[in-house]
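Would you be willing to look carefully at the protein I have copied below?

:::
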Amino acid sequence: MQANLNLPPYDFKSRVYNGQHQIYDGIRRKYVILTPEEWVRQHFVNYLTTHKGYPVGLINIEFPVTVNGMLQRADIVAYGRSGNPLLIVECKAPTVKLDATTFSQAARYNLTLKANYLVVTNGIKHYCSMVDLQSKQFEAIPEVPDFKQIG
């Protein structure tokens, strides 16, 4: 049983395959291993698409990003209509405390992606910031903006 989250519930598909619990990822169109972090990631993607209006076709999961010569993966990257990265979401398991290190991880991805919004979440708490790409300053905002406001 996965943790209760501070995100809207949804009717997800899951299965047990070769002894592993899996959840269906509608973005990647396949079943993936159901880890606590994946539980948060799938719920947050559902929140973005169902409740905030982000188009499924403009979202990538575990998007490869090179940071300081090392390949890493951004949990969720949502793009604007222009095709440029708009929002980066870094997901952690519900038991992981969100701190400056977590935010720094998303900010490092943004050195390459240059999105206007960063979100860190553990499914219980969510922090969203607007990024001024020129001054490299972050401004905390109360919630993730709707796609129609910023897309």
The radius of gyration is 15 Å. The domain at 48-150 is CATH 3.90.1570.30 (tt1808, chain A).
